[in-house]
């Protein structure tokens, strides 16, 4: 798939950045991996393969990593195990895009050596794209792993060299083994990083800073579970939005509570303020989930031009991944634009997503029991009267799982029922009352109103989509087929 230049010396090639030694990853291993990927791709069963969501070329994907903008392109990396469609020693897969909609695969960016390459972030420094990731090393003593932070550099956005002096950050207060998923950003003269951790079975997040990326100083425990907020906090993120600081992360171990926390793990946020003098994050600790669907975890954000974009892993841990028998597993959500409206983060697809529309399949009234037939992709914008029930029945032309998406005015909730697995939440529209749905070959994303309620759920049906109005009322519907924007 990729034209590799003539293999250079197999021995480690040393380069220098910021006066520090870097080591080329083994060229033969890299070349063989790309050849393996190119061969293996031919065996993939395409039935559930996304047409406009990022997925691995082959094998397993989990968290998106290192969402960044470098040399006129967006870059996104992801937790990747190429050799099977289950989790394994973590590599960093790599895709890039100039518009956050059309994506191309690039060669695998990080290959595990003595360390597995766990999640992390990326920043641009001088002429380099810099990756800061967790190196997870197996040890002989309980809990049999150690996590510290590693650096890798690229000056072309394709080839990454690891820093010879890794790890650069290993100090954890009370020596907890869980110390992963750095999110790095710059403020004034310093680099800052938040890292997920755990202390006495309580999740927490740690804040550090550095003047040069190589030497780090511990600043504070930025947040910690008081006992109710889980045993481990993964994938922390901290960013400014609407004049506030958002602390967004993925806690593990929340007890199910009514409609909430029904997935294995959650992703949500506190709103507050970060004080760069005391390194304290002041918040009322009101935890809100960002997305209410079945499959949403481990998000990454990027900011630029006054915009904040987010992408998440469009799967969940410890659930069946039905595509895995097809030679791949895992995808990401659409990139979404975030806004803070009052005390709620709204999420909406990018404006440019309209460019995916190929042809209009319906425009006007959709009577009760009337159905629309699509191909493997669809965008549906619908408006109904909220005094009555609204319901869409989503199924494959040839069977498979049936999903309903419902507004129930009796309880004031939006409900996504995937063959009996229900996720639901109260919805009080803050503005418009229309819905926007995106169907890809094995996924549903539902954006309600201004994006204050969003569901992301993987759904698996056989054959192309058929969407029926199963409400008692006539709905007003605009519907489109969408084109491919990722490699097959
Ligand atoms: C989150 C996570 C991270 C870790 C990575 C390993 O889904 O568990 O904490 O870095 O996956 O693949």
From TrEMBL:
Q: Which SUPFAM superfamilies does this UniProt record tie to the protein?
A: Arabinanase/levansucrase/invertase, Concanavalin A-like lectins/glucanases
Residues of the signal sequence? 1-21
The record ties this protein, via InterPro entries, to: ConA-like_dom_sf, GH32_Enzymes, Glyco_hydro_32, Glyco_hydro_32_AS, Glyco_hydro_32_C, Glyco_hydro_32_N, Glyco_hydro_beta-prop_sf, Suc6P_hydrolase
Supply one GO molecular-function term. Answer: beta-fructofuranosidase activity
The cross-references to Pfam families, in alphabetical order and at most eight, read: Glyco_hydro_32C (PF08244), Glyco_hydro_32N (PF00251)
Q: Which residues form the Glycosyl hydrolase family 32 C-terminal domain?
A: 391-464
Q: Which CDD domains match?
A: GH32_ScrB-like
What EC number(s) has UniProt assigned to this enzyme? 3.2.1.26
Q: Which UniProt keywords apply?
A: Glycosidase, Hydrolase, Signal
Q: Which residues form the Glycosyl hydrolase family 32 N-terminal domain?
A: 53-347
Q: Which reaction does it catalyse?
A: Hydrolysis of terminal non-reducing beta-D-fructofuranoside residues in beta-D-fructofuranosides
Cellular compartments per GO CC: cytoplasm
Q: What is this protein called?
A: Sucrose-6-phosphate hydrolase
């Amino acid at each position: 798939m990729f034209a590799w230049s003539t293999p250079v010396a197999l021995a480690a090639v040393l380069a220098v950045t910021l006066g520090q030694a870097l080591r080329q990853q083994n060229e033969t291993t890299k070349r063989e991996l790309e050849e393996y990927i190119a061969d293996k791709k031919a065996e993939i069963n395409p039935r559930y393969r996304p047409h406009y969501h990022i997925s691995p070329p082959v094998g397993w994907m989990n968290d998106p990593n290192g969402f960044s903008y470098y040399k006129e392109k967006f870059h996104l990396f992801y937790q990747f195990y190429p050799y099977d469609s289950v989790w394994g020693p973590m590599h960093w897969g790599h895709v890039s895009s100039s518009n956050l909609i059309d994506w191309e695969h690039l060669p695998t960016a990080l290959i595990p050596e003595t360390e597995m390459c766990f999640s992390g972030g990326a920043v641009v420094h001088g002429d380099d794209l810099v990756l800061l990731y967790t190196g997870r090393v197996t040890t002989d003593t309980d809990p049999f792993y150690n996590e510290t932070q590693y650096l890798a550099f690229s000056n072309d956005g394709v080839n990454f060299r690891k820093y010879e002096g890794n790890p650069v950050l290993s100090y954890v207060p009370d020596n907890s083994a869980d110390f992963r998923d750095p999110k790095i950003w710059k403020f004034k003269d310093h680099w800052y990083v938040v890292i997920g951790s755990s202390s006495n079975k309580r999740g927490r997040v740690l804040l550090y800073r550095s003047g040069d990326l190589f030497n780090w100083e511990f600043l504070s425990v930025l947040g910690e579970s008081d006992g109710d907020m889980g045993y481990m906090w993964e994938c922390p993120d901290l960013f400014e939005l609407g004049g506030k600081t958002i602390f967004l992360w993925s806690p593990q171990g929340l007890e199910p509570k009514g409609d909430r926390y029904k997935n294995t793990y959650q992703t949500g946020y506190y709103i507050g303020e970060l004080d760069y003098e005391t390194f304290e994050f002041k918040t009322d600790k009101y935890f809100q989930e960002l997305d209410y669907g079945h499959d949403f975890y481990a998000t990454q954000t990027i900011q630029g031009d006054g915009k904040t974009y987010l992408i998440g892993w469009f799967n969940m841990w410890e659930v069946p991944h039905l595509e895995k028998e097809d030679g791949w597993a895992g995808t990401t959500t659409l990139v979404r634009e975030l806004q803070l409206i009052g005390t709620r983060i709204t999420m909406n697809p990018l404006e440019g997503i309209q460019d995916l529309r190929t042809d209009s399949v319906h425009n006007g009234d959709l009577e009760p029991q009337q159905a629309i037939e699509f191909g493997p992709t669809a965008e549906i914008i619908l408006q109904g009267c909220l005094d009555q029930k609204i319901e869409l029945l989503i199924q494959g032309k040839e069977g498979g799982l049936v999903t309903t998406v419902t507004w129930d005015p009796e309880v004031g909730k939006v409900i996504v029922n995937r063959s009996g697995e229900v996720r639901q939440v109260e919805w009080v529209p803050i503005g418009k009352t229309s819905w926007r749905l995106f169907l890809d070959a094995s996924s549903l994303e539902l954006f309600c109103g201004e994006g204050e309620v969003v569901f992301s759920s993987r759904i698996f049906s056989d054959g192309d989509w058929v969407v029926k109005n199963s409400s008692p009322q006539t709905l007003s519907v605009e519907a489109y087929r969408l084109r491919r924007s990722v490699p097959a």
